[in-house]
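> tool_call: predict_assembly(chains=two)
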Amino acid sequence: MIQAQSAIESSGVTPSTAGIIETQTLEVSIGPQHPSTHGVFRMDVVIDGEVVVKLKPVMGYLHRNHEQLAEKMTWLDSMPYTDRLDYFNSMANNWAYALSVEKLAGIKVPERAEYIRVIVAELTRLLNHTVAIGFLLNDMGAWFTPVLYAFREREKIVDLFEAVSGSRMMCNYYRFGGVRVDFDEKMLAMARDIVERYPQFLDEFEKLLTENEVLLARTQRIGILPREQAINGSITGPVARASGVDYDIRKVDKYGVYGGLDFRVPLGEVGDTYDRYYIRILEMREAIKILQQALCGLPSGPIIAPEVKLRNFRVPAGDGYGRIETPKGELGFYLVADETGKMPYRYHVRPPCFINLTLLEDMCLGHKLADTVVILGSIDIVLGEVDR
Amino acid sequence: MIPAIEQLREATLVAAPGASVEVVASTPAVQQLSLLVDREHLFAVAKFFKQEARFQMDFCSCVTGVDYPAKADKPGFIEVVYHLYSVAQKHGPIILKVRAPRELAQCEVPSLTPLWRGCEFQEREAYDLFGVRFTGHPDLRRILMWDEFTDHPLRKDYQPPLDYEWEPTPHGETLARARQMGGLMPPSASAEKLGSK
């Protein structure tokens, strides 16, 4: 190419007359207001033709200094604010915060509350993965048909959450030492009904998608994330497991009653977008297994530790880090309590979505611009959590 | 399994001779002790934990800062906390802490991004919100606040500027603060203006 150009220059013929078009890279800003960015997220992409040569994520459009807000109120006051981190999984966010405070204060949770926590957290996992797959298909151009199927099923889970906590999305359901409301027979029947019917829905969903030619063409060998790179980049959750990283905090830390429940951790082999899609289907099937066991083994008893005071709750001075496996990855809270112990001295959220974006550029390089949208969709981000 | 914290400390001292390593305790319930390392040896200590076959800390989970302003007897400092885990051996955490002075010119800590790529965004966040400069970071820019922003909002002495979300009420906290700081409007003028409405 260079030789050809210099030959043209020496002959004095301009490139356009010789039929060679000089090309240059083009910088495109995708977002922040764009349907494919799942919120207010921006990607600065440099493309050479259709191929991505550089990509920088730009975030902070939804930043509301969540951490500072929590440092100015009591421990329990920020529980409803954790709902707003990842607004699809408020139940999981509540758990991570409650777990961290319980760790710091040394509170033991009654067994019935632990089981209820597992039930709502695994229902959240079903909800999140279903919706994530729906929106992933949206990004591929299957405009809202899979999302509609996903939302049909989500509706049933959200109805149950409303019955239990009074709110469909901002549940605010966990309390330090337990949960707020007990499951009665009607709610348990609703939960059993969901668990019983979910496998049929998954079969239907898979029939539509798993071997769909368009989905295969758009996802296989796209956005490969090698295993070592995923670990080094602190990638967690289904994205890491799709790359073959055998790390599930439910298995490693055995928090709650997960140590006594029987389930497997599905792993991907290639680490491409297809694996990230399929790992979510497999995790939902495992979540159903967990739910069946938790609903069968739900013991009777109190739902909140009796020694925990709701008013004037104080935490001894010290610092602690608690983490759980939310549907999107490792959600951790690093909390520091000072001598007064009335409110957090430092409250830090370790958000899975934010950190999973670290390797977005590496996944997208060399792929077409249209594929970056699909790769971003397969990471499954929520901007409420990325920007905090 | 990770050995007791005292053994960890000794292993660290062998790996990084001359380092000052202290054990920092938390509440008894947490059972997470951390190692306070000096700034000069942080990188060497972190590298040791990553490469040593006994630990294999290949996963840096959480990076954050904590601000401790000066008290009557002690100077203030900013503490940066790293939580290291091992995916290969499924153990952890080893918690490393490092302290830097609060003055912006000296608030520097070596970056661990060359060891763990996962620190990249989290160190940028700590820089943005606490003003800690991570030396050796490949791309240290603000990440959550906008580029033109000049302060570091998670520091304990941070004062939000008066010129946005300004709601003057004659008896409001904002107005009292505005008066104290010289205000946007002269106190008498603003009171009159509001009083006449």
